[in-house]
């Protein structure tokens, strides 16, 4: 909250000093807009394709995610040709690295939710309410063990944040050379 107010005051002072003319981009002409829509036609057809497929029962929501990935891969590789086939291993490596970071965070957040639920503390407010409730119902430990589980969950969350910051801050050139 405080930082947001600081940013708003700073932006307001800068606008008063410089004006807003430098922030406004040049408006595109009608021909430029039509060319942009025509160039992005294949990308713009993905949302209606997925939504209509789910609406008419051709595929489920989970299947639509897989179909969207295959469609995006097809459009990227064959229509727009943004990537070469030789770049595909590097692209897959970056994708797996990102998915790994997200899954580690989800796993540690789930363990934090279980720890908070087993402890029955007010920290369950910060964890997922569903996980906290389900873990609290299955509570089979008492006293010190609950505190120990909660402490492990807190350490796991801190470790996940540390791993994430390390992975994000690492240079891609070094990560891809391994």
Break the fold down into its secondary structure elements and pairings.
Blueprint: H1 2-18, H2 30-39, H3 41-44, H4 46-55, H5 61-80, H6 88-119, H7 129-137, H8 144-169, H9 172-177
Helix pairs in contact: 4-5, 6-7, 6-8
Percentage of residues in strands: under 5%
Mean pLDDT over the full residue set = 74
> SSE order in H/E notation?
HHHHHHHHH
Radius of gyration: 24 Å
The secondary structure category is: mainly alpha
The helix content, as a percent range, equals over 70%
Number of separate helices: 9
Shape: extended
Q: What's the end-to-end separation, in Å?
A: 42 Å
Q: Pick out the low-confidence regions.
A: 122-128, 137-142, 169-178
Classify the oligomer. Answer: single chain
Number of strands: 0
| Biggest β-sheet strands, sense, barrel | none
